[in-house]
Amino acid sequence: MHKPILIIGACGQIGTELTFELRNKYGADNVIASDIREGSDALMQSGPFELLDATNYSAIEDVVMHYEIDEVYLMAAMLSATAEKFPMRAWNLNMNSLFNILNLAKEKKISKVFWPSSIAVFGPNTPKENTPQSTIMEPSTVYGISKQSGERWCEYYHKKYGVDVRSVRYPGLISWKTMPGGGTTDYAVEIYHEALKTGSYESFLDKDTELPMMYMDDAIRATISLMDSPSENIKVRSSYNLAGMNFTPVDVAESIKKHIPDFKISFAPDFRQEIADSWPSSIDDSAAKEEWGWEPRFDLDQTTDEMLKNLKE
Ligand code: AKB
């Protein structure tokens, strides 16, 4: 039987789906969901839940001891667009939560950690096309700075203290179960909701802004597969590049038009354009493919099919 797992930030976009999937795989009682607020009824009713502040070390330690937690997935974070508005709050949340979990692992109170990084670790001086695993990283956003620092700390805790920490650099994630909150890639979820509701969408990113994206099922599969891989296969202890598909707002609109021919898109770029312009447009994820067998399954048209079908229901 798998040892108990704690998910911190379980009510967010990734956390919700990760909780369902891990509960399916390891049994509901083995997966403790936690967040600073309660989540959807479906999530709250699917297994144990604790209200938990990711920045409160002793509260996390109490939950870890109480449930005899072995693995922690730390999904709580402030995303790129919101972090530009609240830089110090973002820094405190994104860094203190990570230190809390790394220190619990250093003290051998837990044995494995998953922590999400992001394509935001890259910056305007990074090669934009097929961005390599190791390259220039000069993030120009608060969120990107916190994720890049986090990566350095993960690698440091692994090398110095033997902490088994694993991470991927998520691209923009597209899902129908939970809305994203405060990200720059959120347009790629909103557009499907608006296509069904009003038949049109005003994009806050410009028409030819190409970004790396991924359907949530692929992201969850990547996360669990990385955590299931033998430790010796995991050579990268900062964070792995992870790619699914790349597209622009126009590409999504064209894909939606195959189902809703009258769909209209317009463009009104706001402050998030500058953030998007500093990020890669495509990612080289060969290290993840070679070291732990990563392979994406969903392209843009398959994502559109899934999104429209499920949102309609
Ligand atoms: C964001 O837009 O901030 C996130 C991310 C790419 O990490 N979706």
Automatic annotation (TrEMBL):
Membrane-crossing residue ranges in chain numbering: none
InterPro entries recorded: Epimerase_deHydtase, NAD(P)-bd_dom_sf, NAD(P)_epim/dehydratase
Pfam family, one: Epimerase
Domain NAD-dependent epimerase/dehydratase: 5-242
Top-level taxon: Bacteria
Family the UniProt entry places it in: Belongs to the NAD(P)-dependent epimerase/dehydratase family.
Name this polypeptide is given: NAD-dependent epimerase/dehydratase family protein
Species whose genome carries this gene: Flagellimonas okinawensis
Organism ancestry: Bacteria, Pseudomonadati, Bacteroidota, Flavobacteriia, Flavobacteriales
